[in-house]
Write a structure and sequence with these properties.
Helix content is about 40%, strand content about 20%. The chain is of the alpha/beta class. It folds into 3 domains: about 45-325, inorganic pyrophosphatase (n-terminal core); about 345-460, Diaminopimelate Epimerase, Chain A, domain 1 (Roll), CATH 3.10.310.30; about 465-565, OB fold (Dihydrolipoamide Acetyltransferase, E2P). A hairpin with a 3-residue loop joins strand 10 (about 425) and strand 11.
């Protein structure tokens, strides 16, 4: 069952924010998200936490400064998602601004898996690097770092994932989640960590007087903020105050047209207007196009798009990424249809988890299908696909709901079922696992057993959390523009409102979207519920987002329906 509930806001905080000049709607929204003072939403660059507070940043800066001065060869080892791609682009572009000799390598996920493994070190050794820099990975690469050190290659680890019990023996580690790090923004993305390393490097080179030499210009690192914003939003990290500064600054540059050619090309390929860029564009238009390369092929294509300065080349690569994303959507749609067909005879209300395996599935998109199943049924879900040509090993990708820590669940399963999981890792909401193909039923039973212990009825009830009623006077394009200009995302939810409406008319568009005309207080509203075909009750309580629909140069407000329940009459 799904319920629409209203997010609580402190009237005192709301009033205080209004006294400081905030618009009443923004004051209410910010107060409901725990903001008490205007400076808490200030996104000026000066509000960033200083790099000195990030453990290992100073050590990393010294390592890089010496390497650049000695003209050592640097090699960036990237992850294969959008955060990894943007972090790699920030590393390559940024270090080249300082005069470094730097190249990059992104392993094919299907051949080498994740992280700096000994096999990847062997591959990297063919480039003869003096220093390997990991971005968005490496904190768990104990064996890989040891293999590099054995070859005489130094390693700098920059990562944001949770560390294990043993840290790699790297020359320096920069990770806000490593033991002893007091950096307050624990949820900074991998691209943000790399950006901080560059800030620390510039600060150290200032102290060394490097920029005082004739002809040596001090790099402008703010030119990389479009990449930082893209990776931060696409990685769905919590937008705390520090991350909101990074995203807001990046969006501001994008809106002014000051972005990498590749970012501009991705906006064009996605059919989005960069002048009105929002976090939604980064997360749902650009991010998936970059991720498609890592899911279906090789993320090098995405990284090349982000590091090229050739506008024509950037457009060519962006078009290839767009085509890959369309292919990814087709594969995903087929897999999702098959997954739902597999569930046709299963009543999810009688279970707490979902586990599905199909030998025809593509392992590059099983995470997306798991996410779709989680959203549809509000259950932790794992989907599996073959991981080898013989079909003996399968890889699974999981997505979870609030109240069910996925990695902790897998950890418990390893203790209860020794030998079941060959490899596993992840976070509270997303995780990956490798098992024998024949063990999928055993995995499903063990996963369901944990679900029955940890998830009660309340946890399995879906809640649509809104900001309550929006007064009629605020259904204007100006208010929509104001809301779109703010920074919203994970942990700082985008505005969603709810209210009672009369349904004046409803009809299907393209047989899969429900177009509505809603009436309230003699005012009519255009609305659409995407991927929903069931008709609404004549009087409904509707949860919705606001958007602007531009037609023939005229902007009008449109409601994007997220959920609706019938209002009892009488």
């Amino acid at each position: 069952m799904t319920r629409i509930v209203t997010r609580a806001a402190s009237p005192a905080d709301e009033a205080a924010l209004m006294r400081h000049g905030l618009h009443p709607v923004l004051a209410r929204l910010y107060a409901a998200r725990g903001v008490r003072l205007p400076e808490e939403i200030d996104t000026a660059f000066t509000r960033l936490t200083p790099p000195i507070e990030l453990k290992g940043a100073g050590q990393a800066a010294s390592l890089l400064a010496d390497a650049i001065a000695e003209k050592r060869r640097l090699l960036v080892i990237a992850d294969y998602d959008c955060d990894g791609a943007t972090a790699c682009a920030v590393a390559v572009r940024g270090l080249r601004l300082f005069g470094a000799q730097v190249d990059y390598l992104v392993p094919n996920r299907f051949e080498y898996g994740y992280g700096l493994t000994p096999e990847i070190v062997e591959l990297a050794a063919g480039r003869s690097p003096d220093l390997i820099i990991t971005v968005d990975n490496g904190i768990a690469s104990v064996d890989g770092v040891a293999a590099a050190r054995a070859r005489g290659i130094d390693v700098l680890v920059t990562d944001h994932h949770l560390p294990g019990d043993v840290l790699p023996d790297a020359r320096a580690i920069v990770n806000p989640n490593q033991p002893g790090c007091t950096f307050p923004s624990k949820c900074i993305a991998g691209v943000g960590v790399m950006f901080y390393v560059l800030l620390a490097l510039r600060s150290l080179l200032r102290e060394r007087g490097v920029f005082e030499a004739p002809g040596v210009a001090e790099p402008r690192l703010d030119g990389l903020l479009d990449l930082v914003a893209l990776g931060t939003v696409a990685d769905v990290v919590r937008l705390d105050g520090n991350n909101r500064v990074l995203v807001a600054q990046g969006l501001a540059r994008i809106r002014r047209g000051r972005m990498q050619p590749g970012v501009a090309a991705l906006f064009r390929a996605a059919g989005r207007d960069a002048r009105n860029a929002s976090g939604f564009d980064l997360g749902f238009a650009l991010g998936p196009r970059l991720n498609a390369a890592g899911r279906l092929s090789d993320m090098s294509l995405g990284i090349e798009c982000l590091i090229t300065d050739d506008v024509g080349r950037a457009w060519e690569l962006a078009q290839q990424l767009d085509a890959m994303n369309r292919q990814r959507r087709e594969i995903e749609a087929g897999m999702q249809e098959q997954a739902l067909a597999d569930l046709a005879d299963v009543d999810p209300s009688g279970t707490t988890t979902i586990t599905l395996f199909n030998p025809a599935w593509h392992q590059g998109v099983i995470g997306i299908v798991a996410s779709r199943l989680k959203e549809k049924f509000h259950r932790p879900a794992f989907t599996f696909a073959p991981a080898d040509e013989h079909g003996r090993v399968v890889k699974g990708s999981g997505r979870s709901i609030a109240g069910f820590h996925l990695r902790d669940a897998l950890d418990l399963m390893t203790k209860r079922e020794p030998g079941l999981l060959s490899k596993f890792g992840g976070h509270a909401m997303a995780a990956g696992v490798t098992i024998a193909a024949g063990d999928v039923p055993r995995f499903a039973a063990a996963f369901e057993a944990v679900g029955r212990e940890w998830l009660g009825e309340d946890a399995l009830a879906r809640l649509v959390v809104t900001d309550g009623n929006l007064e009629d006077a605020y259904f204007t394009p100006q208010v929509v523009e104001m809301l779109d200009a703010a920074v919203w995302g994970q942990g700082f939810a985008a505005p969603m409102f709810s209210g009672d409406f009369e349904v004046a008319s409803q009809a299907l568009v393209k047989d899969k979207h429900l177009r509505l005309q809603l009436v309230r207080s003699r005012q009519r509203f255009q609305a659409i519920w995407f991927n929903h075909t069931e008709p609404l009750a004549a009087r409904s309580h509707i949860a919705f987002r606001l958007a602007c629909d531009n037609w023939n140069g005229v902007a009008r407000v449109q409601l994007i329906v997220e959920h609706a329940v019938a209002v009892e009459v009488g």
